[in-house]
Amino acid sequence: MTLVVEQRPSDSPYIDQVMWGWSASAGSACRPAETHWHMVFLKHSGQVHPLLVGPWSSAGPVQWGAGGELLWIRFKLGTFMPNIATRTFLNTELELPGGAGQSFWLNSATWQFPNPDNVETFVKRLVRDEVLLHDPLVPAVLRDEPHDAASRTVRYRFQRATGLTQTHVRQHQRAHEAVALLQQGVPILDVVFQLGYFDQPHLTRSLKRFIGTTPAQYQQQPAEPLVRYNAAAAS
User: Fold this and answer.
1) Which terminus of the chain is less hemmed in, N or C, by CB atoms within 10 Å?
2) Residue 139: inside a domain, yes or no?
3) CA dist 48 to 6, 108, 109, 113, 119, Å?
4) Any idea which of 23-37, 48-62, 75-89 has the lowest mean pLDDT?
């Protein structure tokens, strides 16, 4: 694998995960679907490109060049930017304009590029200036917690925050549950039964859509991840 990445969790209520690394050589792979959106900072040939990335509604090919350094900020479901609708960068990347020196423009203001050590401080400033908001209804709905919002309100707020429907996110989560069971050696038909798929073709279509592989292929040889994580990242 040609992407070498370190990762860490975050204690921020807005951040799901922080990842950083580099591309050792050019490469390509099948990228799985993603329900979270990211803020990505790509440094290549001395230039830093700030990007809003995803979510990705289905699996698809991805390519990268050699010599790039990357910082990914993966935001929790429910975190969104009120002035840039998440649906505007669904299934794509939106590059933000660069500013003077080590800065970029976002929401009519300039911001210094973050690094892996100060991501939380960077995000706190975005929240303070209301560039980032979090809608607690989104995780509450996904956890099936009681709430007083009408179904129409739930649909609107869920799509505003995630760019996706609640049904789509649940289908994505179920596909990853299926992969976890297949990795444990659970037979395909048992996975179908346990997770409520109609039949094996239904499971196959789901995994091809969200993961990019079939159940049989995954059992024969688990799909190689897009990145290789440094052992030091877990310490």
Assistant:
1) C
2) no
3) 19, 19, 17, 8, 16
4) 23-37
Which stretches of the chain are assigned E, i.e. beta strand?
Answer: 3-8, 15-23, 27-31, 38-44, 47-53, 60-64, 69-75, 79-80, 93-95, 103-106, 109-112, 133-134, 228-229
d(CA 147, CA 62): 39
CA distance 57 to 39: 17
pLDDT confidence of residue 45: 83
- 181 lies in the same domain as 126: no
Query: How many distinct structural domains can be found in the chain?
Result: 2
Whole-number pLDDT of residue 222: 53
The rounded distance, in Å, linking the Cα atoms of 21 and 70 is: 5
CA distance 33 to 179: 13
Do 100 and 8 share a structural domain? Answer: yes
* Domain encompassing residue 29: 3-132
Residues 14 and 127 in one domain: yes
Separation of alpha carbons 191 and 71, rounded Å: 35
Q: How many whole angstroms separate alpha carbon 114 and alpha carbon 157? A: 29
Tokens standing for residue 65: 């060049």
pLDDT digits (tens, 9 = 90+) for 137-191: 999 999 999 999 999 999 999 999 999 999 999 999 999 999 999 988 899 999 9
